[in-house]
Structure formats: structure tokens, C-alpha cells
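Lab notebook, bench 4. We co-purified these components, and the gel suggests they stay together. Before we commit to crystallization screens, I want a quick structural picture of the whole thing.
Request: model the full complex, all chains together.
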Amino acid sequence: MTRETLEVDVLIVGGGPAGLSAAIRLAQLNQGAGATHASPVSVAVLEKAREPGAHELSGAILDPSALRDLIPDFREKGAPLESDVHGERVYFLTQQGKVPFPIIPPPLRNHGNYVISINKFVQWLAQQAEAGGVDFFSGFPGQDVLMEGVRVIGVRTGDKGISRHGQQKPTFEPGVDIAAKVTIFCDGVRGNLTKELLRRLQLGKDRQPEQFALGIKELWELPKDRVAPGTVMHTMGYPLRHEEFGGAFIYGLPDGLLSLGFVVGLDYKDPLFDPHMAFNRFKQHPFTRALLDGGQMIRYGAKALPEGGWNTIPRPYMDGGLIAGDAGGFMNSVRLKGIHLAMRTGMLAAETAYDAVRAGDTSAAALSRYQLKIDAGAVRAELYPVRGVHQAFGSGLLAGVVAAGLSVVTRGLVPGDLHGEPGHERMQTLRDYSGAAPGTMTTSNLTTADRTLTFDKVTNVHYSGTAHDEDQPAHLLVHTDVCSSICGPEYGHPCTRFCPANVYEIAHDADGTPRLQINASNCVHCKTCDIMDPYQAITWVPPEGGGGPQYSGM
Amino acid sequence: MKIAVCIKQVPTREWQPRLRDDKTWIREADVSYEMNEPDAYALEEALRLREKHGGEVVVCSAGPARVQQVIREALARGADRAIHVEDDSLAAADAFVSAGALASAMADETFDLVLTGLQSDDQGHGQTGVVLAERLGIPHSTIIMEVQIDPSTSSGQAGSLRVKRELEGGWFQWIAMPLPALLTIQSGINQLRYATLKGIMAAKKKEIRKASLPAGLQPSQQIVALAMPARSKQTHLIGGSAGEAAKELVRLLRDEARAL
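Here is the predicted assembly.
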């Protein structure tokens, strides 16, 4: 079967807030150009999910600054903003109690922002983009970057119809080569294509190592008067220890819905720690238990977050390519927000790409104007002052909180530039961390799930709506040689714990040899394994297009 | 061959439905939808018949505006054009109303063959195709596993069909019938193709004819109450020696569970 090819002027990989904002901006520029150009700049968006928004996961609180600039009449156009933010609280949790912060720290003040469902918001953005004439292809992941030397010339989409043994099924449909003058990579946190670009073009050279966290979220339905829509609560402390970064978010939505999530830095030291267990322990705290009592969990999801900040952002331009949104690490981990930065960088990338295509020069030099736009505007203004705060959390909770405070007072003079380590290198071996016997697999923060308030991972995954065609090759490429030979003895198979979807299990052969079993169809595409594996032996590649979670209403 | 395929948009199966407060339907606020699975097989069968015998495939759907999602998907997979009977009241319509709505929009087209899925994944009455055949005044056959068309026509004859029906217990039945006809298609009759990028782009230019709901179409059924299945788990411990226990287990599986 021959491979289809397609040519567009601008190809956008990833239909999230960054990619769709880029697409909408390009559509606007086309319309604004009017009669001056014979033909519009053609735009296509690739999205791996079955439909727009299905793989989107966030708290979410939206800072509307970028939305206001992109679609000034967003209210008239029916933007799904669930509620204005009001009633903010921040708590420090102890094992049984809670201490409210006397003041809301400035970065966590959300007046003027909105609580949203990012799933619905992205569906709406996709409608706006399609109304502007953009081709939106859902169910098509970007599988490989097409390059000529150091120049990005497009993307190959994933093949469809390959059996679990790697053979072509009768329905086999080869991936399509999409050639583009400019490709904007918006493939999200730890995007598979951006990861490849970072490696091949060394875009992270002279930058700090990237830093990540894992966010786990549930949507709950509560008695309607329990939490007012727009209520925003954050917690720090229990069940995390001082050495672990993270905390909870609790956002009230209309109709008695509650967004409940827990973020854990993917730089914890304890190899026996399990982020999902931490989430369950948080739910067992008297404060959370009382909040959720009588309610019902209706959705589950998990996704990594780029936490590293300004100094970890790679060079976001190259010959024929730009990087925007979470893929480039454009997130403010101090304000716990990234949607507006994803949208803003998507818009700036679109403007840069449009000018470059019109000028007939899409070289790295021409596309470097993207960096100038970032530096001159709201993105740097927001991220530069807090550039060392996440790294300060590497020295513990107290250091992080102090650094966050000082960054506000000194406008970024303190803590300034701090060095960070890749999170997976901070994980210690069993022997170094606790002296546990080689091969120990007992979770250190173990707790049991009651299936009313707390759930095991398999039950949770069921509520993520995740589905993949079972007859396809595993999309988690693991160099399994390390599993039983060194990873088990040294770290006790941490993949079985850091994965929030029970993808990794250790089975035993008849002779007792441990063997890694990969339940790839459970995967919620959070990318944690690709990030946190201490040997970096796991590579996440996209499964057959359309597979993955279904985060309706999340 | 002028082939019609009737498709329905249903909630995805990987989803935990929640009931409305009045318990007569599910909450639609956070539902995601997909093409009803047997309908997808019906569409695929129509596309294969067109490849063999030529002609056109027209996809027909009755539902609110949101069903455009599955109509566009069908066009992307290769259907030539579409008819959409659009009305909000069709969201949870019964088979009689759905079939009536479709029949009024399809009547003028004089299709040679009409395919529907065997049943819908949401309500599952398995009636829409049958009622539609009656409304269109053409014969029908149900639970179809294979379709053979003899298009040889002499003096205005529309040709004939041989179809394989699935019966119980692994039995099949072959039926010969004239065209035009309506067939309700069983899942698994063929292998579904993927939509291609070019197909998706081409679909944007294809015609979707809007039709309105005919007046006076009253529901003949009413959902009184929906209920979630009660979770029950009964554990029966069988005592005795391994041999006795195995014997007893086989007896229980055969006589009580009827699994053997």
C-alpha cells in the first residue's frame, strides 16, 4: 500500500490549548490579510485523541489574559467558563489537622480567573479553529519528525492496523507524510516528537535539566450545596514529607461537581513511594474525607506537568520548526498555571510562522523572532522572576516556600538561577534510601482502597474512559533487560508504583524469574514512565490513533 | 446501486453513565459519543458493495445537531453524501419515531438497498431497521452476516439478494430476496476501515442535506425508569476433598450456573 503525502504551509502537532490557539491565530491572520494574498496560508492540526479535548487534563484554573487577546468576544462566542473564582483558601495539612494560611500567597491569588473544564474548553477552541477553515485531524498522532539534515520538513503520522506481533492487518493503513514549511510542535508535556527534537538538535544545550511533576485528578459529584462553584482550595504538607514536592487542588464547579487533584514532584527520593497512594492518603485525611462524604467519583485521569520553569525551556525554534505550550515547558509552577502560557506561546508561534511563510524564509534565523516575541512580552515577564523557585523546592518544602515568597518581594533577584537535577536521578536505590533488602517492592506509603472514597489504580483507570485497540504492538518501548537484572534489586521495580494506571506489573515465570508485564491498554498517556524511570529505559510512543483516555467533563 | 446506510450516534462504551434525576434517561452533560458499532459495520458493508457494484452510498441519521460528528465520520470513511433529520427531540427517540423520521426523509430517494445496524448500543430495541422497512414498503431481513447481490437486471428489475442470517447455536440461514430491500447488519460481518486524512478533507465538501421532523410523529413508547445494575457478588465455598469438590463444582456449573 502506498503512503499518502500531504502538503501544508503550517502543520501543528497537538490539538491542545497551544496548538489550537496557534491554529486560530493563523486563521485570523489569513482573514486579516484579505485580498493582499492570492491564497491563504494552509493550516492543519494533528491530534492523537479520538476527538478534540479527549486527552486534555488540568485542574483547571484559566487566567484569561491570552484568551482575551485571541478571542476578545469569547463570552459572546460561548466560551465554556464554568465559574468565576471566589473564596480562595490555602491550607497546610498535618496528619489529622489543617492550618489555614493567614494570607493567600500572591501567586495563588486567582481573582479574575475562571474555573474551567479543560476538556470542554479545548472542544470549544477546536470549533473556533475549524470555523476559521483549519483542517483538524483527530485520531492521528505525530509518529516521527521528518528531517532533511537539521531542517524539520514535516511529520509522519502513525500507521494504523498493525497487529500485536507487528504484522499488517487487512485493514492496514500506513501513516501519512505531511510536508510543511513550518511545523509547530505542541505535543504537550514530554511530547514524543519534541523529545526527539531535543535529542537530535540539542535544543536543551546550556539549559537547566527539565523538571516534571505528576498530577492525578478525579471529578466528584457531591451534594449540591457542599462546595460553591468557583471555590478554590490548595493544600501543602500531609501526606507528603518535606523532601517531596507537591500538594492538592480542590476546585468547585457548577452542578455539585468538584475537581480534586494531587500533584507530586517527579523528583522524589524514595524508590518505594507511590504517587497514587499519596493521593489516596490525601483523600483519607479528615478534611478531604468530610468534603467528599456522600459523593461519588465520576472521572479519573493523570498527566505529567512541566515544572522546571524559565531556565529549563529549550531553544524553541529551529529550521522549519517551533515549539509551544507544555512541550516547551511554558508553565508557571508557582502560580500552578500553564493554559494561558500555552495559548500565548501558540499565538506567538503562529504569528512567527505566518510571517516566515509569507516572506519565504522559514530558517531558524527567521523563526528566532519567536524567541524575541517571548522575551519582549508577557511570557518572560511572568516566568523569569520565578525561574529558581521550583529548583529551590529541591532543598525541601520550607526552602521552596521561602524562595517563592522572596521571588515576589525581590521580583526575581532571589532566588535567581538555581541548579536543578533531572528528577529521575534524584531517586535513590533501596540501599541508599532506607537500607531495604534488594528487591523489596513493598510500597512505603501503602494504604488500602475502600472503593468508595479511595480506589485502586485499576478501578480508577476504568473511570478514565481509556480504550486502545488490544491488537496492536505495545506503545511503551522498554529495554526489559534492566528489569530483573538490576532494576529489581536496586530500586524494587519503581515503574509498578509511579505509573498511576497500573500499566507495569511484575509477573513471575514458572521458575520464579520476575518478568515485566506491560498492560499497555491501561495507559492514560501521562508520560510519567518516560520521565521517571531511573534507567531511562522506557520510551513512550503514540499508540494507534484514537486510543487513550476519554476525559469528558474533566 | 443506490445504497442508504442508517447510522445512530450513541454514548461511548468506555464511560460510566449517570442517570438523570428523573431516572428516565442518562445525563448528557459529560457524555462523549461515537458511531453505534453495528451501524459502523453496516457502513463498511455498503462501501464494499459500492466498490464491487458501483453506485453511491448515502448515510442517513436522525438526531440533534451533535450527530453531525458521526455523519462526518461516515463521509470521511467514504460515504458520498448524507441526510440528517435534525431535531432535539430525537436525542432519545424510540424506534418508531426514529424510523418515521428517517422514512420521511428517505422516501423520495428510492434506494435499491437500505442497511442499518442490527441494534443500537444505547436502547438496543433492534426495531428501527424493521419499522423503517415497513414505512418504506420494502422487505427486510435481520441479523445479516453476509450479503451477495445479483445485480443482473432485465427490463427494469432491480436485481436480487442472497443473504446469510445468524441463528442461535452456531447455525446460519441463507435467504434469497428481491431488491429493493432493507437489511439489519450484525457486528463483525467485515473489517472496519480507518478514516484517512484525505477522506477527512474530502468529507468537508460533501453534501449533508438537512430534513426536518415530519409533523405528528408521536412517541409510542415511554421510558418509565432506568436503573443501574445492582452489584452482587456471591461466594460459594465448596468443601470436601479435591476430588469431591471438583465433582460438585462441575455439577454446580452445569445445573445451576448452566455454564457447561
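The helical segments of chain B are 37-53, 68-77, 95-106, 128-136, 197-203, 242-256. Worth comparing against the SEC data before the next meeting. The mean pLDDT of chain B is 92.
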